[in-house]
Amino acid sequence: MAQILAPTSQWQMRITKSSTTASPMTAKMWSSLLLKQNKRGPTKSSAKFRVLAVKSEDYTINRLEGLLNLDLTPFTDRIIAEYIWIGGSGVDVRSKSRTISKPVEHPSELPKWNYDGSSTGQAPGEDSEVILYPQAIFKDPFRGGNNILVICDAYTPQGEPIPTNKRARAAEIFANQKVIDEVPWYGIEQEYTLLQTDVKWPLGWPVGGYPGPQGPYYCGAGADKSFGRDISDAHYKACLYAGINISGTNGEVMPGQWEYQVGPSVGIEAGDHIWASRYILERITEQAGVVLTLDPKPIEGDWNGAGCHTNYSTKSMREEGGFEVIKKAILNLSLRHTDHISAYGEGNERRLTGKHETASINTFSWGVANRGCSIRVGRETEKQGKGYLEDRRPASNMDPYIVTSLLAETTLLWEPTLEAEALAAQKLALNV
Questions:
Q1: Which domains does the chain have, with CATH numbers?
Q2: Which positions fall inside the GS catalytic domain (predicted)?
Q3: pLDDT, tens digit (0-9, with 9 covering 90-100), for 260-311
């Protein structure tokens, strides 16, 4: 990443005479030349020498870095707020900056803003204004100081959430008193793949070829096993700086693929933190000249896909007797399997094949310590009789607002018919 870690600035000195090609000259050589000229006194030669000091490319980069890293705090109370929202694809993040008169501590202190929705696939050209509502703020790891990142959701000028605004519906579910009383916790495992810029082939893979088979790469170390660790580490620290509840990171099974975990987070906060972390990751890969993809199956064949496993628990699940509550939640999830699958990410059918640590997309299953199931329950949860469940179905490109709120809705607010519940209980008993 030469554009980030630029070497110390240097000057290149060139002496030209007529059309003679200039040659590089160090600062030491230039000082020596000046000293000799001073000792000799005025030159009698009619030849004219011109000394040109040309800033090197590295020096220019360092000057730019210096400006980017300016600390504005001693000079002004004004800050830069980066407004971030989800674009028309439902996966892309967009952002733009504005100056705020003073530091803020809560999103309610920030003004609403607008953007051209026709340029993001979210509004027609003849009525393109979309309104941004600030919802969550994080410290800006790129600008530092009191500058902030602002997670927003999008509305029409009449105050209606636009179709790609999934946060609004999630906020309604998490505002339900029954959900609030259960204090839903989420731990989200975001997997992602790094691609080479020009060829869109995984980082570390030979262009047009394949590395050795999977096995040594998961949590591996070494130049032949770990590709992109600097990006993962930079992202980890940037998230901690921002105030994102990131809890860990690791290299994944497919080379060039990584994972980080966010949580435990409560309610709507889980979605806000995942989207902020995705934005930061996009910015870091942008600076590194690497392409980020959340495609759930970036490479076809005998390679692991990329998921976004979502660990979930409620207050009742975490208390004594919680395992029975977990089983009831799993029963409800089995009855709404199709609803969840349809909302768990585009292209997920290429990933959920029943292979590579996944369950079939068409069949609901659960098990203890079984990573080939739709829902996994940990050994410790079984032993303690309380804990959490892991939904392994969400794809890496899932919308965390949808997944987290749907889990809460299905397990806390939705009630199946007695007949459906009895039938599902029989199927699950046979499955186990």
A1: 11-38+48-68 (no CATH), 79-163 (3.10.20.70), 174-431 (3.30.590.10)
A2: 163-432
A3: 999 999 999 999 999 999 999 999 999 999 999 999 999 999 999 999 999 9
